[in-house]
Amino acid sequence: MTLGAPAYVTAFLSALALAWVLTPLMLRLALRLSVLDEPGERKAQQQAVPYLGGVAIVLAFAATVLVAGLLLGPEDGVPALAAVLGAGVVLSIMGLVDDLRGLGPSLRIAVEVVAGVVIYATEPDISLPGPPLVGIVVTVLWVVLVTNAFNLLDNMDGLSAGVAAIAGLAFCVISAVNGQFLVAALSAAIAGCATGFLRHNFHPAKIYMGDAGSLFLGFLLAAVAVRLQLESAPAAVSLFVPVLVLGVALFDTTLVTVNRLRHGRSPLLGGRDHVSHRLVWVGIPVPVAVGLIYGLALCLGFLGFLLARLDLVSGLLLVGFVLTVGVGVLALLSAVPVYATSRRRQAMLRVVRTHEPEPPAGAGSGVEAAEPLEGLS
């Protein structure tokens, strides 16, 4: 089967249009049913925000895929795609239940592991050194990692959906150039439904995707990465292409995991210590912080495309350069004192108190106390 640019554009625009229309409908339904994300200690919003944006994303993507499947026919790999879509829908339902009632991490991980096994079972071209068990384990770990990385990345208005859209477009271009037409169309549909949802998710967000949307997008991108076959690139280099394309989410997960462990916190608990929160903490406005992360996602997507076309030595040099810069940025962001127990933060607060001006003479109970800086809560 051969597809061209018109098919990719059609898949992108179809998913975008459906998400664009369905998102406000889900917003009204969430308000009617009181399916809301209430403000809390670890949340930035000051008022309740409707959930169910993830349902719009799932419906938009599923409708696009089902129509494409009817047009292409079962001989074009649609049954395997249907199995992947089914696993994604199960993850989305689990995420919605978690949004509404809360689920333990053990159950979530178990369902994600099963979804990873589905990916392995429906992709016969997975080949890694060693026995088949190695391929199963690596595939499952990859699916669980990327799925949760995009779930963790959903921590600021427009962030996870925007990065998912950029990654989807990058995968679309890379797979199309390498002759994987079905993977390219699937990636275009992922980018389309994420972009259509963004209309109501930019800061200040009118609706959230919730775990129902972030788990779904993360799982689909993990599945696309597994199906990406770069026959012209050296094997040692091609493995890093999806890592670069999904680098923003993977870097954010690494940052919060390392720093939570350093400060004696559980990596499984939420917090305002992600890349976006650290940028806001140093004074960058929310839209600018999200825009900077979009720019980083675009750069990594381009580097992923470039890496897929390099020889072994050039590719490894590029990977080494990116990893070196990544370690440096991680160290720099880790220095931002976002935790209340941080010694650097306590020292900064002592300096602020030392240089605070004295209250005016006669000032008493009528003088209001200064409110804490955003990001210090």
Gist of the model:
Helices cover 68% and strands 1% of the residues. The protein is built from 15 helices and 2 strands. Mean pLDDT is 86; it is low at 351-355 and 361-377.
Order of strands across the main sheet: 1-2
Following the backbone from N to C, one meets helices and strands in this order, namely HEEHHHHHHHHHHHHHH
Query: Class by helix and strand content?
Result: mainly alpha
**Parts with pLDDT < 50 across at least 5 consecutive residues:** 351-355, 361-377
Distance between the termini: 54 Å
Provide mean pLDDT, rounded.
86
Q: Helix tally? A: 15
Instruction: Give the biggest beta sheet.
Output: 2 strands, antiparallel
Q: Which geometry do the CA atoms define?
A: globular
Oligomer status: single chain
Strand content: under 5%
Tally of DSSP β-strands: 2
- Give the radius of gyration: 22 Å
Percent of residues in helices: 55-70%
Structure, described:
With 377 residues, this protein is mainly α. The protein has a domain at 5-239. The chain is 68% helix and 1% strand. Strands 1-2 form a two-stranded antiparallel sheet. The longest helix has 29 residues, at 5-33. The protein is globular.
Write the layout of secondary structure elements.
Layout: H1 5-33, E1 36-37, E2 49-50, H2 53-72, H3 78-100, H4 105-121, H5 132-153, H6 159-177, H7 181-198, H8 210-227, H9 235-238, H10 241-245, H11 247-262, H12 275-281, H13 286-307, H14 312-334, H15 343-354
Antiparallel strand pairs: 1-2
Helix pairs in contact: 1-2, 1-7, 2-3, 2-7, 2-8, 3-4, 3-8, 4-5, 5-8, 5-11, 6-7, 6-8, 6-13, 7-8
